[in-house]
Amino acid sequence: MNTDVCTSSGSKDDLSFRSYDSWSVLKKTSRTFFLSISILPSKMANALCLAYLLLRVSDFFEDSRFIDCDEKVRLLSTWDAILGGTEFPARWRDPIASSVGRETDAIAAWYAPEILAEFRALPRGLQSVVVQHVRNTTRGMVRWVKRGPHLHDEADLDDYMHEVAGRVGYLATEVFAWHSRSVRRVRSSLMALARETGLALQTVNILRGITEDAERGWSYIPEVYFEQEGLSREGFLEPRNRERADRVVARVIRKAERHLDAAVEYVRTVPRSVHRVRLACLWPMMFAARTVGLLRERPYDVTDDVKMTRKDVRKIVRFTTAFGWSNLLVDRYFRSLMSSRSSLSS
Question: Cys staple from 226: which of 128, 190, 221, 231, with CB 3.0 to 4.6 Å?
Answer without folding.
Answer: 231
